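Hey Z.,

So I finally got round to the zinc ion thing we talked about over coffee. Here's the setup:
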Amino acid sequence: MQRQTATYLVLVVLAVYLLWPSAPPSPLRPSLVPAASPAALRRSLSAARVIEMATQSPLYNVRVPDTPGHAAAKAWLMAQLRQIDGFELTVHEFVDDTPLGRKAFANLIASSAPDAPRRIVLGAHYDSKLFDGFEFRGAIDSAVPCAMLLELAAGLSPLLPSAPPDLGFDIVLFDGEEAFVDWTATDSIYGARALAAKWAAEDRLARIELFTLIDLIGTGRHVFHDAHPASSGVFNRLADIEAAGRAAGWISDYQTPSYFRRGPSRMTVEDDHIPFLRRNVPVLHLIPVPFPSSWHTHADSASALEPKPIADILGILAEWLHSLVRPAARRNLRPRRPAHGMTKDEFLARIGRECDQYADAFESWDELFSLRGLDMKKRNIPVRQRRWILRKTEMYRQQHEPSDD
Ligand SMILES: [Zn+2]
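And the result:
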């Protein structure tokens, strides 16, 4: 019986594999069946595969911008990103002056639903820091974060056809994060500065609901701080997922009491998020502070990597991303009943930002709480108000009073 069941399962898996209507899966991933639940998505991701990608591929080259090792790492990353269905690759090339002369750079951007008005950016840098005297591979800085983004994107890929149509992801692998000599405003984050300026000129920054940056993940203690008020809600959501994961037993024993340290923190670090933060983009920066002791030393290598924190953090991010792609809560939640007889017009007036000008676009209180972003777009509500209304109705469901801040 067991053997028959196993045979049957093999046949089903084979049939799904053969009949799946997308391009052939990457050789790194055996299956591209959509993960129906957050747990299924989490379980489909592999820290071992992340470590393999980060350390057994050209990504592990010394990859200082404008060198052959960098070119090979870039070509490998581009090939990986092109294999992930549902994402379109854009290569943002530019040149800039550095203390070591003029250099060529390239940010790699893989976008799902490129025209969708709500964007979630997931970023990490793929260049490595130049050191004289030893070959710096930057396993945690940031080969592993890049490989984590590849793994997350591949896991999300089969879910994208059923994602909210107004939501898109931008996986951004930044070039030129590291200083060539010493970290200054002009000798660092070359790629992030260029991309933030480009997207500002293209009026794309207002579409970014959250700019998430991961860095220095893979060894040592990982304590993440809630350093940016605009992303505090998401930070606490990640802390909630971690707490639930500990209770359910899928978070390892690697680190106690937690990776995500709740409570506002002033612990800010300069990194690729800065040019976006300065342009008022909401930023979530997941970098361990204090930094691991191997940071910017020869010890930041493959042999120091630990699968447990990579698996734990990958799992937390996977469950969060699943909730964005499959927002069951939004679909299943009935609108919270209006308190004190509040009308939809009063609600829209109280949340400010001129949302009350669009009161007539909603026929009822229930419609105010059930329309998705794309429906609001069809009713000519501008993106700024759409985002604010979606945010404020969700907050109201969570028992926050309507307010204009
Ligand atoms: Zn670094």
